[in-house]
Specification:
alpha+beta, OB fold (Dihydrolipoamide Acetyltransferase, E2P), 5-stranded mixed barrel, 5-stranded mixed β-barrel, 23 strands
Length: about 425
Amino acid sequence: MIENSELSRHVDDVLRAVGNKITKEKIEKELIDYLNKKVPMDIAKQSVVKKYGGDICELRAGVQKKIDELKSGEKNADILCRVVSVNERKVTVDNQEKKIFYGVVGDQTGTKPFTAWDDFNLNKNDVIMIHNAYTTEYQGVVKINLGKGASVTKESPDMVPSIEYKGKLNECRVADFREGLRNISVKVKIVSIQERKINVKGTEKKIYSGVLGDETGKARFTSWHDFGLKENDRIKITGGYIKTNRGLPTLNFDEKATVEKIEEEINVTDRKTSISELTKTGGGFGVVVDGIILDVKKGSGLIFRCPECKRSLQKGVCVIHGKVEGVSDLRTKAVADDGTGALSILFGREITEKILGKSIEDCEKTAQEKMSTETITDELTDKLLTKNLEIRGYTLKDDYGITLIASDAVLLKKNAKEEAEKMLEELT
């Protein structure tokens, strides 16, 4: 049964909402009747207020709950808790800059993140009673919000014991990055970083993106806060999360994350993987596969692109800009197989020139002499078909599957006799 002091608080709340139309004793009796029928306090209060013609919007006192009892969509919740951490940042609301506060609060049952839209003078380790909070959910985590109607009172420190943050950290390596992985703790080295500006809900915002990595591979990252990161920094990121774009995992972290400089040596390498594993994981950045070229596809060789949108032209026509004067380019679209699976491969101009052993200008001259670009495709086919290559790059995923966008390719000169003997051993 609810304690008398707690019940009295809710009785006073209902009395205010009904405008003193009935006595405290009557309200208390009706509330107890509802509670005995297992009706939640907030519903009981609303029922009494409606019965006597009051305004439920006038109800202010929330139902006190433990941290682990909070669900998304709570309204008018009261929470006795300790401040585990508190930070501040500036946001733009209705074209005006506003300071908000965020962090973690907890009690004996757990911890939850919070956001306060006003300055309640919160300090780490304060024991507080939050009145009239509401909750939302973000990425599967329930968050406590102190909005316009909320208030905070400081309480005795002995009312809530010391709390340690109970959020589950996922300690991982770069090779473990998967869509939906959150609250990540990872040690990495910054390979490259660039600052750029984006538009977020009409407001210009700086973000920092690039490539990071460890001994297991590389990945793209986006930092939504300026942590002062530089190329070759070795850092520990705590509180990041993974989002994928076209199958490519990207580590995201913002001002809620912790970023520490570390002295630990980190050697960044590309990740050697099989095609079956790459397909299973959905792709990756900085990956290396060994495969035999089984097919050189139509559309390889000397092509012409739209000068506006860079799309390849079909008989001098761009699907967006119509008939245009094309700009020449080289590419190779192929299929590689490593015995565990097959994968589409795309080589750009530089690698295609290396494979052919001649420049794009030489290819244009050859095509003019032969009066056909097909001669370049034939040369590529002769150079690549049945050849074993080590290919490195990153993947992109679409409705047709995964394509490895190559950054480099090297011909592997393997001993045919040794390979045949190895295959025979595996078969026996």
